[in-house]
């Protein structure tokens, strides 16, 4: 069983996918959809229905592999399971019906920190905030020499809340290639969340030094990766990168080597980033 917590603000709809181990819940993935045009005028229940739909689309492998409980403080079940609805709500309900989804009142929320996370995210997305920007910290690691190889990404917001993503590569990688793929995945993950300020911590001295222009990049393949990384870096308002010892990067290393303890919870990448487009 997986759980989705929904949140809505005037500019976006958000959701957090969490897994449960024992009596604790851990964030696995976060989805944010910026509202456009007519979407900004949807009633609150339709915005929540849209949040459910965007979550199912973006996290389809999770929804296909697991039963999912959608947790909200609104009567979303009545809206999506009402046969009298027509138009977009009816279409959304049909699309969601292929998954094993149930709807639960938010009063049973076990991890209050997740609700706080949604509030923090909504506040940080507001154009009216005057608080100084705080950077998210991104830990990442790539693991080559395994079949398949993989990567792990851990994002930590300024309040200490963590999001994790395990990645499996369906192609052979060198050690440095796996590290670059992990770095790109982490940066793209952060940008998908609407994050503007990032501080990357990576245990590869080679990659950190190449990004900082302290080491010359001679290998043609790594030059291509460096170009992609710099393009991603340019999408952030601020970016810093720091080399750290391996012992400070243990969680990202575990995710890279062993994935998440849930069937279907690991993101699979089929082609190297330098072959995209």
From TrEMBL:
Record bears the keyword Transport: no
Record's protein name: RNase H type-1 domain-containing protein
Organism from which the protein derives: Platanthera zijinensis
UniProt-listed Pfam families: RT_RNaseH, RVT_3
Record-level Gene Ontology MF annotations: nucleic acid binding; RNA-directed DNA polymerase activity; RNA-DNA hybrid ribonuclease activity
Keyword Nuclease included in the entry's annotation: yes
Cited PROSITE patterns: RNASE_H_1 (PS50879)
This protein's UniProt keywords: Endonuclease, Hydrolase, Nuclease, Nucleotidyltransferase, RNA-directed DNA polymerase, Transferase
Top-level taxon: Eukaryota
All residue ranges annotated as the RNase H type-1 domain in the record: 132-261
SUPFAM superfamilies listed in its UniProt record: DNA/RNA polymerases, Ribonuclease H-like
């Amino acid at each position: 069983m997986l759980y989705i917590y929904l949140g809505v603000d005037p500019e976006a709809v958000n959701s957090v996918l969490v897994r449960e181990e024992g009596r604790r819940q851990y964030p696995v993935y976060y989805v944010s959809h910026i509202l456009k045009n007519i979407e900004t005028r949807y009633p609150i229940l339709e915005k929540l229905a849209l949040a459910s739909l965007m979550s199912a689309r973006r996290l389809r492998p999770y929804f296909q592999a697991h039963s999912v409980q959608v947790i909200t403080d609104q009567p979303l079940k009545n809206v999506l399971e009402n046969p009298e609805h027509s138009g977009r709500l009816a279409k959304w309900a049909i699309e969601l019906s292929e998954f094993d989804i149930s709807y639960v009142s938010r009063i049973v929320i076990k991890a209050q920190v997740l609700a706080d996370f949604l509030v923090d995210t909504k506040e940080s997305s507001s154009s009216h905030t005057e608080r100084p920007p705080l950077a998210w910290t991104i830990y990442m690691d790539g693991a080559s020499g395994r079949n398949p190889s993989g990567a792990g990404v851990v994002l930590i917001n300024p309040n200490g809340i963590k999001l994790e993503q395990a990645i499996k590569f369906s192609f052979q990688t060198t050690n440095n290639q796996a590290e670059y793929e992990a770095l790109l995945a982490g940066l793209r993950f952060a940008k998908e969340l609407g994050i503007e300020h990032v501080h990357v911590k990576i245990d590869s001295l080679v990659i950190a030094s190449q990004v900082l222009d302290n080491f010359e990049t001679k290998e043609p393949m790594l030059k291509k990766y460096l170009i992609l990384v710099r393009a991603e870096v340019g999408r952030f308002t601020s970016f810093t990168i720091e080399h750290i010892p391996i012992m400070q990067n243990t969680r990202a290393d575990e995710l890279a080597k062993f994935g998440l303890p849930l069937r279907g919870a690991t993101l699979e990448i089929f082609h190297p980033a330098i072959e995209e487009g």
